[in-house]
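task queued by scheduler; priority normal; single chain, no ligands, no partner chains; default sampling; output format set to structure tokens
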Amino acid sequence: MKLKTRLIITFLVIVVVPFLSIFISFWAIGGFILRGHMCFGKELNSNTIEQVRELMPEHFLIYMLIAIFIILIITALILTMWIYTSVFHPIRALNMAMKNIADGNLDYQMPQPDKFQKGELGELSFNYEDMRLRLKESAEEKLQHEKQNKELITNISHDLKTPITAIKGYVEGIMDGVADTPEKMDKYIKTIYNKANDMDRLINELTVYSGIDSNRIPYNFHKINVADYFRDCIEEVGLDLESKNIQLNYSNLISPETVVIADPEQLKRVIDNIVGNSIKYLDREKDQDIIDIRILDEVDSIRVEIEDNGKGIASRDLPKIFERFYRTDASRNSMKGGSGIGLSIVKKIIGDHGGYIWATSKEGEGTCMHFVLRKYRETKYSQKTK
């Protein structure tokens, strides 16, 4: 019940009850006089009234006034209890709940109003509960964010330490004259260069992650011819895979005129992250490490598949691989490295391009990453504006 309705009812009761009591009193007196008149069977006159008065109990009017007073007191008590239980009690409960919020106790639940509490106070209690849940969710997200940031710093620190240690070792080898042949010198320099690239990749991931966290990844979208773009990407990726003795198979099954709207730099980051992830988890026990990249036509979109013949991913881990900091190999001694945010970055970039990504895998056989991008279609309006 709304407070306005309660106040109206209270006002009416306070006004009506006294008048009703007085009316009942006069009705009782009038009835008594009428009965007296009927008893005497004559017209009312001063003598009749005196006779009726003699028949009335002693102190009748005093008793009636006392009865009216008692009725008023009972009415006041009932109204007071009603107002207290329906207004002041919920307000006191809300005050207690707000004190718990101020003390940081976000688990305190305010007693919910009963089915009759549907007015402003009921809405206030429900709004409090909604606020409490939002604050609790925000606090939990903040704690999770802080935990993730600490984990990221730990991961990055660990993964930077590995290439730095290697670089220092090879530089010391060069300084001490260990690389005493051109072949060794060339090997040491290439190793130092590769480790420096690993460090650069980790720092770039950290930069992109900070952009994801603030939703400020810089994009430069424009029309890209899919065939030309992926041909250039495959040439660059192929050189890196060839140096690692990994076989690359590429097939393009879409029309040469197919165009998408994308940011070339960020799309290249997607490909590099997926390929890098495949390289990281290749099964070195197999005779030949293979990565297949396929571009497929999906009528209104294109589908890119990047498949490897690595160790694969367990079915229980597959739904979680795009989560931040999730690692299928939890051991820090696995020497796999990585910040644990690569695939979450990939998912964010593909999502910002209006596409979607998923993975399929079988343990011991390999993993395939699929992502879909919409094709760009020329419209009559766009043709007229050229």
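post-processing summary
- The beta strands are 222-225, 247-252, 259-262, 290-297, 301-308, 356-362, 366-374.
- The two ends are 64 Å apart (CA to CA).
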